[in-house]
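pasting for ref
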Amino acid sequence: MAQILIVDDEVDMLALLAMIITEKTNHKATTTNNPLEVPKLIKEGAFDLLIADLKMPGMDGIELIDEIRKIDKHIPILIITAYGSLESAEEAIHKGAYDYITKPFRKEQILIAINRSLEWKEMKREIDYLKKEK
């Protein structure tokens, strides 16, 4: 069971994502509508995945990627946005996002992205373990 942190300034989107995750997977979802809380939550909790909106007041998704990478270099970050562009997608991936999804998304699309990002994190953990074994 993975611990997934979701941040979006739209409360309805938080509820939708949390519902999809808890009903369709065995993962646990923690939500916040305040991106400024995310670094503290990441430091305090053992989250396996961060799902973040791109456009939020206080701190946007790109700034959030920078802050999270200072704390945890390996946590996969999924960026979701209603304001998708090639430039913002490239910037998010370049900064360290694992994937970039535009709204509206299909439920299956977000579930596939979650599964792929968690598999990627597990693979990275195994690679790090094997490197230490040498």
